[in-house]
Automatic annotation (TrEMBL):
It comes from the Bacteria. ADP binds at residues 13, 17, 264, 307, 408, 412. The lineage of its organism: Bacteria, Pseudomonadati, Bacteroidota, Flavobacteriia, Flavobacteriales. This is Glycerol kinase. ATP binds at residues 13-15, 264, 307, 311, 408. Its EC number is 2.7.1.30. The keyword Coiled coil does not apply. GO terms for cellular component: cytosol. Residues 5-249 form the Carbohydrate kinase FGGY N-terminal domain. It comes from Polaribacter glomeratus.
Amino acid sequence: MSKKYILALDQGTTSSRAIIVDEKGTIVGMEQQEIQQIFPKSGWVEHDALEILETQLSTLKKVIQKATISNVDIVGLGITNQRETTVIWNKNTGKPIYNAIVWQDKRTVAVCETLKKEGLEKHIKQTTGLVVDAYFSGTKIHWILENVPKARKEADKGNLLFGTIDSWLLWNLTDKKVHATDYSNASRTMLFDIKNLCWDDTILAALNIPKSILPEVKPSSFHFGDYVLDGHQIPIAGIAGDQQAALFGQACFKKGEAKNTYGTGCFLLMNTGTELQFSKNGLLTTIAWGIDNKVYYALEGSVFVAGAAIQWLRDGLQIIKSAEESEAFAKEVKGENPVIVVPAFAGLGAPYWDMYARGAIFGLTRDTGKNHLIKATLQSLAYQTKDLLVAMQNDAETPLTSLKVDGGASANNLLMQFQADMLDVVVERPKITETTIMGAAYLAGICVGLWKQEEILSHRKIEQEFTPKYTSEKRERLYKKWLKALERSKDWID
Ligand SMILES: Nc1ncnc2c1ncn2[C@@H]1O[C@H](COP(=O)(O)OP(=O)(O)O)[C@@H](O)[C@H]1O
Ligand SMILES: O=P(O)(O)OC[C@H](O)CO
């Protein structure tokens, strides 16, 4: 009997990836292609939606070719994606009418202020679980419709479609042009009622967004449509936003289980079960996934700049040649680091939500060198995560005893040890840190009957545990310094 495989795609902020997973949950092939970052103005971040599609299709084809498997053995396809990033395209031509506006883009700050002035903050929080911020798709859609020539007219004629990256890929991959998304992605638009599972008319009216452009919303483990490859139909059977997919991939199936992903940004998510729970401490409430006719929720802390700060050391300051190198330089600083870097390059996300904060460096003296700066930048990832965990512990009923980690920067041992020291919890790094794309593979595999959800727990293996070593006096002293620095970076630009 021939083997069965799942194909999964991860369209991330910096790259498009594709993997093939076998029945045992082993990755047997992986392809990755970087995508171009476009910065047309200060605070603006865009991607070319056609490049996203091309790189994703090319990784998909290459991974199948290299794994030397037959298309007919691929029984399902899962998609995960950078969330909130907004594409609007013309359904007749299939062409985007503007570049994709990326989640990090801050051009819609003024629209957010208007929503607040109109008194919509409370309604938005209670309906969507989110805070009013330029981060989410809603104000980005509004911007495109208001600013791209003829966009409003075309939308009124019913010619335009909106999608987060999953919907853009799904529409293009399916012959029947399926226009849909899943609950986890919809919950990041700031337009979706996460309790009643429908688009919210009040917010749509406030942002002047016609319902006709929005996708249908489905569970995350669901047969969305088929991708036809050389005559063979592959069911697209799983879709989830990347952070929720990572929560699934880390098998955080029980209430109270949490993971932190160290990628471009940093995203701490805790499964809160099937009951809606709102944060009193600046975290977001979001949909984790929809499966088996149930919707699961999560509390989320989102930090905008994490691994991106390491990229800044590499590409901006050019004081390291690769992200990996940061560890060796940081190790050269013996003892406590007097320098603190607050990488609020795009304002501050959770739990502060300050769109006006900007990056800052503190504690410089005549003998400060590049190693101090590198170590401080790495440490800023751990401090920002501590801010999230403090907020989450204050919201949650049960304290967290361990943290599951993944994402590019989780490979950094110095950072992981400092993280355990600062949090005073054990940090658990799994063998497979590709949990995001595995989450998408699992959602698809479960839908097509290849796996049962419980089986996934046995796929997960720990590679290394980092145990806290600091005294509480040291931990508190360092954290206090961080909070002092943070305060001074807030409310910086006008
Ligand atoms: N060894 C490392 N130490 C610190 N940061 C790292 C290391 N390896 C990768 N990174 C950072 O991790 C990020 C890439 O992680 P990844 O999970 O691929 O991100 P994304 O999914 O957001 O594209 C980059 O921003 C990079 O700077
Ligand atoms: O593509 P990533 O991994 O940086 O994730 C981006 C997040 O989904 C933004 O909310």
